[in-house]
Amino acid sequence: MAKTTPYAKSSWDTLHNNGPFPLKTLYVTELAGSANMFSKYDRYNDAALEIQRLIREAADRNEGFRPYGSSWSLSHIAHQKDNMHYNGFMSIHIPIPPALTHENSSYANENLFFFECGNTIKRISEVLGSHGKSLKTSGASNGQTIAGCISTGVHGSALNVGSVQDYVVGINLIVGDKPTDIVYLERHTKPALNDDFAKKIHATVIRNDHLFNAALVGLGAFGFIHGVVIEAEDRFLLKRYVKKIKKETALALADTMDFENSTFKIDGEVDENGKPLRPYHYKVFINPYTNEDEYVIEIMYKKPYAIPYPDPFPVIKTSLYKDLIYLLIKLSEKFPKSIPWFIKQLRKTILPEVNEETLGTLYETFWDAPYQGPAFACSVGIHHKDSSKAYKVLEKMTQDEGPIPGIFAMRFVKQTEATLGFTKFPITCMLEIDGVLWEKSRKIMSLTEYSRRMIEVLQENNIPFTIHWGKNSDWKFPNLATHMFGDKVTEWKKYRNGLLSTEMQQVFSNGFLEDVNLNTPNDTNDDDLIVSL
Amino acid sequence: MKSINKTFVKWSITIIICCLFSSCYSVRLKNVYGDPMPDPVSDRTDFYRMQKVQEIDTVITIKVTDKDFTMLLKECGTAGIHTVEYRNTFGGVLLSAVTFGRKRRVRVKYVCMKPTN
Question: N or C: which terminus of chain A has fewer CB atoms within 10 Å of its end residue's CB?
């Protein structure tokens, strides 16, 4: 039997110390041992019953319940003031035999894998690697759990691929404590697995594009994500270059995404006509406090997997004294004008080394990121055509009203189908500023004030935008969700309303959903909404 | 004269602090593969944030006839070790020196590998 240990806690914090936030009880569930329960499906279903028990207990106390994984989100999206559930030990993966593939599936059976919620990106990559497969993309590192990634929209800079949620093809949710409250969702236009699979996990199948897309980036509000089916692809290599290029060229590439006709070219990364290839990944690093005429960029090209290749891992890694970082921040709070100087001195630690070249798998390229102390990140999504315009206005605001201890970066992500996915533009430029968390002083504004100014400045300049759900912002900004997503908010709420009872909507709500006004049920309740199409 | 003395004392303290600082360092061995054992209840704010860390802080005595010293670990089971850190301190070096190497301060942290399912 799965075992849950409750811990009485007064607070909980994110990995990057963006809290602390108040809490009553932290639950940690561990699966039944494989020696006692041989079948993986049995262990998985046993864990589902345990989660249902915890959900019922929370509901009976009129309290909330929220699962979380690696605590990597910097916003308070993972926090719930009553009951939080750590699901990192719920990490089964189950192979999908051809017999379980849907007859109308367009996916190659060998590319479909089923993972329980607590599997990290790193673990999933290792499992896939052992099958000669790879994830299509990941974030900049690998510690997030798969359920956390899709709930918040974790992305890399794969401009032709998308975010983590975009290769999820099936979702198993626990939306209550009744046997019928275990559901398995797929898109009706792209079924992946047949009903026999759903039977094995004791789930009711619902194949419905609208419901699936609403639940895909569900912000933890669509119930407990117990497992997901993902589509992998053949293992590949990424050739990574770090270059310093003219500012105008870097921004022109961001605005146009026209790599093929750019003056920027890397030897060997051209087609048969000598035109530059379209990269897999493009990232621009920008220090807002210098007026250099060149930016550092990171660009990667996809290559077929072939061995041998040089070991991409450095043998030795060093890190800054944490006390030194703390000292710099304390000085920055007292003397903010010193921030640009500090950033300049630390540029070798902050930025990748120019002219660096590596070759490795996705797993090796986006590897571990060690904890470096309290951190912040504010990240807005804009149409890539607005990249340079948005950067200019945010740079000006940061220079005029800051400085703050961080630097900007741009990453580019293909459009998602998720209803509330923040990568909603055809190619979304994720324009982010991240750095070391500071405290407001007489001379430096607070992080919330800074992120509020980001929203105001983008609105004043009529630049449509979204905000990364897992990063810092002024989440209480009036009408923020509606401003970002328009009618999609109503659609998302409608499907949440249909899938979850009013009681369960309260259980799976939290302060974050209240702040962005996504917790309240819709007035409408269409009976025929939650059906297979 | 007084000012020369003050300068001398200041510089001496600075040099001693620098020596102590550099004699106190960590060497860490980390497995490239696998996840570290998580500890969701831990509040630590160092490199091992949210990881289940096992710590050994002891003084061992080595006899003249002993060639080496093996400490047996049971916590990691069959999953193995993810990270090991050895810390060297000025006090440890001093202890070893004054006992002619017979007593050694052992300060080790390690994190087991998260078991896979």
Answer: C
Kindly list the residues from chain A whose CB atom is less than 8 angstroms away from the CB atom of residue B116. 91, 123
**What residues of chain B lie within 8 A of the CB of A319, using their CB?**
47
ipTM of the complex in this document: 0.92
Pick from A94, A139, A93, A131: nearest CA to A111:
A131
What's the pLDDT tens digit per position in B35-49? Answer: 999 999 999 999 999
CATH architecture for residues A236-310+319-477:
3-Layer(aba) Sandwich (3.40)
Every domain of chain B and the residues it spans? 25-112
Pairing verdict, β A182-186 and A204-207: parallel
Backbone angles phi, psi at A476, to 5 degrees: -90, 5
CA of B91, closest CA in chain A: separation in Å?
A: 20
Q: Tell me the per-residue pLDDT of A111-134, one tens digit each, with 9 for 90 and over.
A: 999 999 999 999 999 999 999 999
Distance in angstroms (rounded) separating the CA atoms of residues A221 and A500 = 9
Name the DSSP class of A155. B
pTM above 0.80, yes or no: yes
Task: Closest CB to B35: pick one of A86, A92, A122.
Answer: A122
Which among A13, A120, A370 has the least Cβ separation from residue B35? A120
Domain boundaries, chain A: 3-234, 236-310+319-477
> What CATH class has A3-234?
alpha beta
